[in-house]
Write a structure and sequence with these properties.
Elements lengths: L7 E2 H12 L8 H13 L5 E2 L2 H7 L2 H24 L7
Antiparallel strand pairs: 1-2
Helix pairs in contact: 1-2, 1-4, 2-4
């Protein structure tokens, strides 16, 4: 097993879960969804783990709720920016 398959960013899971729940995502192609996920992840902190049990054990309910709120906001903004077809002045 290589090292790159032993670590993951927990926000990746949260971003994909949030994205797939959104009705507006159902009509988007895979490339667009990947762009949205990348943009959202670029605007979130990294939270790496090796084993999912580590996150379950060390993450409090309030910390998870905060991460989910941050994820919803980042994904919402990413969807807006990617689907609007334009670039903002700060890009």
């Amino acid at each position: 097993m290589s090292l790159d398959s032993q670590i993951a960013n927990y926000y990746e899971k949260l971003v994909l879960e949030d994205l797939y729940k959104r009705p507006e995502a159902r009509n988007l192609d895979e490339d667009t969804l990947a762009d949205i996920a990348c943009l959202a992840l670029s605007n979130l902190p990294a939270r790496y783990y090796r084993h999912s049990v580590d996150m379950a054990f060390f993450l409090t309910v309030s910390a998870l709720a905060k991460m989910e709120d941050e994820t919803r906001a980042a994904v919402g903004e990413a969807v807006r920016r990617v689907t609007s077809g334009g670039r903002d002045a700060d890009d």
